[in-house]
UniProtKB/TrEMBL annotation:
SUPFAM superfamilies according to UniProt: Ribokinase-like (SSF53613)
Alphabetical UniProt keywords: Cytoplasm, Glycolysis, Kinase, Magnesium, Membrane, Metal-binding, Transferase, Transmembrane, Transmembrane helix
TM helices/strands, residue ranges: 9-28
InterPro entries (UniProt xref): ADP_PFK/GK, Ribokinase-like
PROSITE patterns: ADPK
The species this protein was found in: Mesocestoides corti (Flatworm)
Record's protein name: DUF4159 domain-containing protein
GO biological process, one term: glucose metabolic process
Pfam families membership: ADP_PFK_GK
């Protein structure tokens, strides 16, 4: 005779299922964890971290390309410092500026204020190229004037701070902390190079494309605001950042040159391994920083040729045993990212993406 579950069994099973769903929701909504304390603790651990001595050299890693100097400031305080009132008139509907995923051309301070306001209302992260060189220099000078100690890179300061930026230097620093033997491929200023860990070696390309023999810093103005901040009668729905750039080195992929691998053989971080041995080839090449080529208004526009040169490097010059990781970051120029991915993805072993600030 077939045994059928009783009505009581159905009721008990249903109650158990409901309880199993309700319990994690209840615990999540009533947790007493202080998120800021957790983040502070993680930062403390990060600052005190020291890798254990390794009996053998770590993996050989090359990281490219480029770098920059970040000047991080409170966005609203900076706007006031350049004479822009937080209570001024809003932008008009006829403004030529676009939404957060469109190509935008910034020529005047009014363009910047209107575009920043739109991003602020949306709570959207944005990185924008300033076409007007004189305007960008004015903004950088004003930002430096806001810093407490503009001569040094600082981890934190009340009014703002200057730091080594760019995906490639950040990843190189992290990999070195984890025990890898790291070589950074970048044209850096002397101050930027000094900000790197001593264990990271830098391969600097010779000057090209009319750029100076001694690299100058590509400066990024990182304007941050908190959730709930008020600007022109609008409240920020989330914390985020608005970044202004006018790079000269990075959009031209100036760190990539035909003699890169021969330079690595002479000056790269080999971790004590002897050249000629297959083990002395880089274990990994990390491609990053290409998002600075996106939406860049350089003349002449040599970006297609530079992407072809990167394709040639990955396919012909890089040793076959070397794995390639592509850190995509965020792009907005559709044609550029399509051409970029078609050119290099066939030679990539893994893909990552540095997400914008949520």
């Amino acid at each position: 005779m077939e045994h059928r579950p009783s009505k009581t069994s159905y009721i008990v099973g249903t109650c158990v299922a409901i309880f199993a769903i309700w319990l994690p929701v209840y615990l999540y909504n009533h947790q007493s964890v202080d998120i800021e304390a957790v983040v502070s603790g993680l930062h403390h651990l990060e600052a005190s971290y020291r890798p254990f001595p390794q009996p053998q050299p770590g993996p050989l890693v090359m990281v490219g390309f480029g770098g920059c100097t970040d000047i991080t400031l409170n966005a609203l305080d900076f706007m006031e410092s350049i004479g822009v009132s937080p209570n001024g008139s809003d932008f008009s509907d006829s403004s030529p500026q676009g939404t957060h995923d469109e190509v935008v051309e910034l020529n005047t301070l009014e363009d910047i204020v209107e575009e920043f306001t739109k991003m602020f209302i949306a709570g959207a992260a944005a990185e924008r190229y300033v076409k007007n060189q004189t305007l960008f220099k004015f903004l950088v000078d004003q930002a430096i004037a806001c810093l407490e100690n503009p001569e040094n890179y600082r981890e934190a300061a009340t009014r703002g701070f200057m730091s080594l930026g760019g995906n490639a230097p950040v990843m190189a620093t992290r990999l070195a902390k984890e025990g890898a033997e790291v070589t950074l491929v970048a044209r850096l200023s002397a101050r930027e190079a000094r900000a790197l860990p001593p264990s990271v070696r830098v391969l600097s390309a010779p000057s090209n494309f009319g750029l100076p023999m001694t690299p100058e810093s590509d400066v990024h103005l990182v304007l941050e605001y908190d959730r709930g901040a008020v600007w022109r009668n609008h409240t920020a729905p989330r914390s985020n950042r608005y970044i202004l750039i006018r790079d000269e080195e990075n959009p031209r992929l100036s760190s990539l040159w035909p003699g890169l691998m021969s330079s690595w053989e002479k000056f790269g971080n080999h971790g004590g391994k002897k050249l000629g041995d297959a083990a002395a080839y880089p274990d990994l090449f990390v491609v990053g920083g290409l998002q600075t080529m996106d939406n860049a208004m350089i003349s002449p526009d040599i970006r297609p040729q530079r992407i072809d040169e990167l394709k040639r490097f990955l396919s012909l010059e890089l040793p076959r045993p070397t794995l390639v990781h592509f850190e995509m970051a965020s792009f907005v120029e559709t044609n550029f990212i399509v051409n970029l991915t078609r050119a290099i993805l066939p030679y990539v072993d893994s893909i990552g993406r540095l997400l914008p600030v949520p």
